[in-house]
Amino acid sequence: MERTLILRGLLAGALGGLLAFVFARVFAEPLVQSAIDYEAGRDEAQAALDKAAGLPVETEGPEVFSRAVQGNLGIGVGMVLFGVAMGALFAVVYTVLLGRTGRIRARALATLIAGAGFLTLYLVPFLKYPANPPAVGHPGTIGARTGLYLLMVAASVLFLVAALLVGRRLAPRLGTWNATLVAGAAFVVLSAILMAVLPSLGELSGAAGSETPLPLRDPAGRIVYPGFPADTLAEFRLYSVLAQVILWTTIALVFGPLAERVLRRDAPVRAVAEA
Predict the structure, then answer these.
(1) Global pTM?
(2) Cα angle for residues 145, 149, 155 (degrees, 5° grid)
(3) Which of 93, 171, 204, 269 is least surrounded, with the fewest CB atoms within 10 Å of its CB?
(4) What is the pLDDT of residues 248-262, one digit of tens each?
(5) Is 163:120 a contact under the CB 8 Å cutoff?
């Protein structure tokens, strides 16, 4: 049965990744192209300033993959594979918790786990380190940003597990509702403390004070190229969150009925084995 559930999780994850890609391709990809165009224009302006100052001008080599391949096949395959990975992780957690969560129905359990996955693996880390288009951000801070984001992911998962254990221990004394509120408050407080301690994106970039490109100025202080459009950045982040909502919602809605069917089919077998 476990193997069958995990295969269902892979299927649900692949479908979720595909739907998230379709959404991102329609709404987020044009913003990525805008960011790339902005970066190209800014590089040209910087090269003109360097040339006027007598500094060497760097030239970029040819692209290994065309922009069309990157924005369609590349992103599509990447998002489907990411969905498959999340679906497998989801199914493993579901299998481990099955039978250990009281009388929660299969579909409800799937919804709770999907919500927890979205919360800990994406939303909480996103609140501290929100996503940027590929062309936005200082190259020198990529390693730090990646490490801090993964730290937020790991900490969020640990905080949720700790909150669930606290809630479970308090439930007999406080009741399920009050114990759930205490556990939720503990998760929020722990996450807020970690966010307050970790450096913000602006602190990573040193004197610039921002990961978002500021206006480019000439030696006289005149703006020769504008800063990155705030509207484009805000829209990209919104669509990034919605793509993740589509992924995890699809996993929950597809996996729940499939798991329920598997559990119903195997119930007589388990009853005979336990007799």
Answers:
(1) 0.87
(2) 145
(3) 269
(4) 999 999 999 998 888
(5) no
